[in-house]
Amino acid sequence: MEAFKIVSEPITESDLKGFDTIGAMPFDLIHFEDIESYYSQFSVVVKRLVLKNSKNEVLGSAVLYTKEYYIEGRSARVLFIGDVSAKPVREALVGWSQAMLPEILNQKKALGAEYAFFMISSNKRKMFNFFIRPRKIRSDHPRFNLVRSVKINLIQGKTFFAEDPLEHLIIRRAVESDLDQISGYIKKTTANMPLARLCTKGFLSQEILSWKEFSPSDIFIALDCEGKIVGTLGSFPLYKYGKIKFDLKDSRFDSLQQGLRIGSYFKDLRPVLRKKETKINLFTHMYFNNHDIFYSLVRKWIDETRKQGDIFVYPHFKGALKSAPSDSLLTFSVNANLYLIQEPNEPPSSLLKTGLLSADLDIDLPFVV
User: Fold this and answer.
1) Which parts of 55-118 fold into alpha helices (H)?
2) pLDDT value at position 261?
3) Long-range contacts of 35-38 (CB under 8 A, 24+ apart)
4) Second CATH level (architecture) for the domain 155-335
5) Fold exhibited by the domain 4-150+336-358
6) Strand partners, 74
7) Residue from 84, 92, 41, 43 nearest 63 by CA
8) CB under 8 Å to 303, separation ≥6 — which residues?
9) Cβ 307 vs Cβ 268: under 8 Å
10) pLDDT tens column, 34-64
11) Which end of the chain is more exposed for a tag (fewer CB within 10 A), N or C?
């Protein structure tokens, strides 16, 4: 067995130059200067793990962070695994298998987490096959149990013959005085979700205050004719935290590029140029009564940012009909999967029961970048 070690120490962008990223996003992130600071917005516990060989060379890294969630009717601590990367050599894959994955499960226990979640794109074949579908099933290898398939949707704009939003809705930006009412709406909407935000009193105010590039005005709320909230949709400016570049080797993306270049001249679409920096925003606080309200909120964001050229990304979990992409929006999708990582001999979690496959999940993309 080869010798590997796991250390907890900061690393720089140069340490990870040329590494493969193993996340779920339909684009490549250039590593932020201080990724730990980014994740500390969402968690009080953030830990960087670095995989090294016997020569002290960096082979891979990951950031672990915890968050309190409401899971199947009770509060539980959840471990998320983000900013995952590996050097594109066999030694790194072996190191991940022999050292990094077992250490992640050890950290799960040490941090008092009951669940460990990892989202990975199925388009990244090499890494996907290694982590999820190894050729040989080893008895001591952690189990990756599929929780839900998900499409990471990248919204470029509206189509030329897009349907109009709902006319009776009043859609406006939230202000601080709306937060208590929004919190109540979120608690009501997520009551039957098997995995949702922990909606304690004042949680939304605390959450928004802790997010550095986010404020109440970054959430649109939809009101009905009686002034009641029937939907919310926030936009998290990921591009403000670091450079983002597209480098997708996908024929569908090439075809889309050509259409976007033409459509952008009519100001309906936003061109995404390969290897060019793009203003990526991640949809957050996605709660709404039905699909038509969701579409109306998305259209509001598109219309508000038309001149800025912003592009919006959000997860559509399989079976979640309310957040399905509309035919009136031009959307590029990348397949991904949300996995629950468990000990080799640990019995399957109740989260994996059949009922979860058709229920909404409340996981915001900023948590799993």
Assistant:
1) 90-95, 101-110
2) 54
3) 35/63, 35/83, 36/10, 36/63, 38/241, 38/369
4) 3-Layer(aba) Sandwich (3.40)
5) Aminopeptidase (3.40.630)
6) 71
7) 84
8) none
9) no
10) 677 788 888 777 888 999 998 999 999 998 9
11) N
